[in-house]
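MODEL INPUT / OUTPUT PAIR
PAIR INDEX: 1
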Amino acid sequence: MRFEWRIRRLVAAFLVAMLAAALFVPSRAAADDSLQALLARTSDQVSSFLDLLSETNCTEHVTQMKLGDSGKIVEKQEAAFDYLILLSNTGGDLNLVESRLPSDPKAKPKEGAPLLLSNGFSTLFLIFHPSYSAGFEFSLEGEETVNGRALTKVHFQHIRGTSSPAALAVRGREYPLDLTGTAWIDPATGVISRLDAQLESGMEDVGLRTLRTNVQYAPVSFDAMSQVYWLPAQATVEVESLHQHWRNIHTFSGYKRFSVNTKEQIAKP
């Protein structure tokens, strides 16, 4: 009787496992389909957003801080720039160049030792661009309501050895960054509302211990355009090297759209 009870229990457990598998597989497949559909919408948004961003300029306010052991600010510099992004696509390679011109050309350079320079973090949305998305693994992290909007959280993890949209420049050499983090995305439109990223592991061989960044996006509208675009509003970058600790805050405002018309004319011989 005892042996028969054990057999029945195993059969019951087997039936339960089969039922769980039958319920789980379609659910996982549905989740995969949902993720792929969301990534496709986000990729389309990022591509169109990038085209728009290359036709806009704004004011960038940069606060550079050096922190002490207790997190207290020991040195601080602030500056404002006319900011724009120049986009080119040469040989199929996407190339973004940030242009910064001092808002006040007459302003004198700050005295003292230079602080941390952090460029390009406003464009971390490139993680979802077709040029870079193949170098990341994505997974769903659930939903979160932010300011009354239900957003889907998508986790990303850079695949080592593949192209990365972020790099560390040290003494003229660039080291691609293996980033991991979370993006908050509108599931209906694919618009990114927030993006948090950090190094998967330290890079002590080049003096980098930790790097964390948070990018916030905000709705921006332009004259004669009915659509609202979510553009970078603030990027916070925090870096710890083996001996120092920095925090930079980039704030973007006053977006304006411009267009450039070119006309080619062949002169008569």
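PAIR INDEX: 2
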Amino acid sequence: MHDKGVLEDRSLIRMRNTLIKEIARYKNRIKAELSFFGIVIPEQYHKDQSYWSNRFMQWLSELKLSRESGTETIGILIDHAKYLRQDLMRVNKKVRELSKQEPYQEGVKSLTSIHGIGIISSMVILTEIYDIHRFSNQQKLSSYVGLTPTSHSSGDSQIHGEMVNRGNKYLKKAIIEAAWVAARIDPGLHQDFLAYCKGMKKNKAIVRIAKKLLNRICFVLKNQVPYHDGLE
């Protein structure tokens, strides 16, 4: 049985995921409108760190089209995107506050010791898993997350296919995203990722990294200790 408080905290964190999707939808709509009106985005805003920055949003806000109706269309879309960003910042602030409180504080401390996992992803993991001890082994946890590949037997061989389209989508998303970060900054996982990529596509290789990350998550939560190299 899940604690009611944890369920409410989880709903807030899931709302964050909804807001991110909505912001992406409005961004795509704005880009589509600009393209439709033949407006070229200046080169200085093409870099990842500049795109959708405050400076870029300011440029959008000051944009004047040939007719007032076109300017109004872009303005309404920008206003909606701004409101959503404010809501996202509000949620992020609240999630960070929660991460410093019980029952999350110690779990966050342990999880953020793992390369690739930050405060937000820690809170996703803690509120979605709730109690790590309800999983008797790592395979059951992996299945719950949705990192277990499909498989079928053919004669004496076992054939593994794509990752199952089941599991907890919030956990899976958080762990896959963390795995991409870990594959860059964790020396051991980086080498593993490069090795996997020699025999498979990157999106399949990252699932292998995610499962290794899940092993670490399981270990630190069950033992209530920070992670250090060599622990699995």
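PAIR 2 NOTE: Strands lie at 149-154, 157-163.
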